[in-house]
Write a structure and sequence with these properties.
Elements: H1 2-12, H2 23-28, H3 32-36, H4 40-56, H5 65-78, H6 87-97, H7 107-115, H8 117-125, H9 128-142
Amino acid sequence: MKKIFIGILLCLLSVSVMAAPSSKQASIKSSAGMWDGLSFEEKVKAVESVIGIFAEKGVIIHKDPRFYAEEVESIRIEEPEQFIKPIGVLLRTLFVMYRDFDDGRDPDDVIREDLGEELYQDYVVSGKADAQEEYYQEWKVSSAPNENVLQSK
């Protein structure tokens, strides 16, 4: 299931989901080289920074920043050639796809409006979004985050 999600996510990254970056967002933009140079705790702090930027705009992200750091790392490891987008764009897409971009709209409407009808049909209507929520719930139960799995330098 994770491979399917990553494939859909990478497809979505070609869709512009991030508004023009603010000066704070520009500092969060990151190349693969910069991400690779961070320790796991620094990656979590980078995710927390992106969450903070969205919080300033009234968006609440409920899920654990460690979870998102691990998700970004999985994408980095499994599809390194696709890791060309800024970290903020990648994270926003993850937030939306995990129904965690709480700006007051229904989470499925966020997916539909931000990612388009075709991807909404493929991801939400097919049940993949529900499967991703189950995946997160399992992660929460089983996760004392395992930093050894991550490829931090």
